[in-house]
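Shift notes (night). Ran O-acyltransferase while the centrifuge was going.
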Amino acid sequence: MASMEDLARRMDQLAASFQRLEARLDSAPAPGSSLRPIRARLEAQSRPASDAPGSPALAPDKDVYSTEEEAKAKRARPAMYPHTPRRRLDTLEMAARKYKDSEALDFLQLKEMQGFYNLAAILLVFSVSYIVLRNVVEHGFRQDPIAHFLCPQAFRDAMIAGGIITTAVAFSMLVFLLQRAVVSGWMSPSVMLGLYAGVQCLSLTGAVAAVYLTPIGPLPAAGSLCMTMVLNLKSHSFVATNLALARERVELIAKCRASDDDGAEDADTEGAERPPRQKQAGNAAAKRRRRGRARAEAVAKEETAPASDPAASPEQSSPEAGADGADDGAVTAAPSRRLAALKYPGNVTPLNFAYFLACPSLVYEPYFPRTKRRRWKFIFRKSLEMLACFVLEYALLTQFLLPVLAAPSPYGPLMEIAKLAMPSMAMWLVGFYAIFHCMLGVAAELLLYADARFYDAWWSATSLDAFWRLWNKPVHEFLLRHVYVEGIHYARWNKGWALFAVFLISAVAHEIVFSASFKTARPWFALGMLAQMPLIALSKRFKGSRRGNFVVWFSLFLGQPLIEILYFREWMATKKGQFFCVD
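Came back to this:
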């Protein structure tokens, strides 16, 4: 009976609780109370997150909202209508409060603002189309490819450029012969380095002199000088890498011999004091060490051994290839296996060097990873895309750039920069796609070259140093290995001096190409490259943000027309307007 009475009492208490809860659902908050009615709280929880009145980012001033007023409005409206008036913020204000820490383009890409983002894309396409259409209507088509490419100047320039590139290839083969003489023992490395420096200087100065002393145009001159520079960089990487391999090989041979001699002496000494069974084990260990020493000596004598084909399988160059499946001991295993894995000096062959000259890489490797087959559809598609890009480049140059550069604007350089900025950026982007994505990709596919990453996502770089690392991977890898790392390792530079050397060498190389191609001694490009160092330090303040990406694009947007005005305008003024067979 007692249990039944307790149960009935609890049921009465539960019913009273439900009655109090129902009363609170329809009651207004007490004066001075900070609690809102439960019904309003439940309605707030059922609303979307963006409409939640309890959200700190969306909470308005307390005196502009009353739950009682909202309840009155709800009771006064016809029940058949779906719309319920409630507390809601303005759409733009709600989005601004919710994403008040977001940046401009992040804000435009929200679901609430995607219409404006699409409008910006439509305006961009419409503006570009209008500029092209207006230019064609006012000036007509300026392209005459038959007259341009079949004029006597074009044939003359092609012959001069071909001669410059052929000479550069001959100098590169001479560098190979010098390296081969060192491998064969006919020449010491120090003598070879002196001759190598002379050959490199003669190759570069000869190309520059040929451009200056002949009437070649700027575009074919720049192409031939770039090819000469590429061949010089490849030759330097070939020599520097092989010298590093030779030093490492000598060190490994010395380590193997020293460790094998110490192991053999220890085995002979301990064998005299051991029991017969332990003496046999010591003799077996000594035999294994002697076999390892014999392998090291055999590798040391293979100075004139034939090189392996560049298409050799990766298994032939693996560290385990020369171990013979035996355990040479914890001391001698690593040096002997590393020594057996080195392809030097067998890699110094004409076939290996010719493959390196043809492959799309500026850093030499004794063995490059290879693909198994060629994708002919990919080659055909990228070749067509490259051809289309070059046609578009030609149209942009003749239709938009040359007319502006040939006639100085009476409104000053700012108006000229404004006219040149958009076609210059378009020409640069199309040229980047044609060279780095199409041309180098086709070359890699034809040569079965597997490492086909020639750029990274530079367009999303948030600092200038990230842009220079990402947009041109072959040049970046060359400067990283042969300037930055070797400067720190050999010259004992600190990181600051090594970074300065990277930009200095890059500035000098670009200035040689531009000054020689346009036949003007104006160090504008070199100064612009060196000015990147303080700009890099400044852009690091915005690293990781969209503002940093704006800084990168803004520098590119202004840099292209400035270079064209400083170099192209000089050529157009001094050469009476002759540029690529265009009057």
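Residues 170-358 form one domain. Residues 28-65, 302-332 have pLDDT under 50 and may be disordered.
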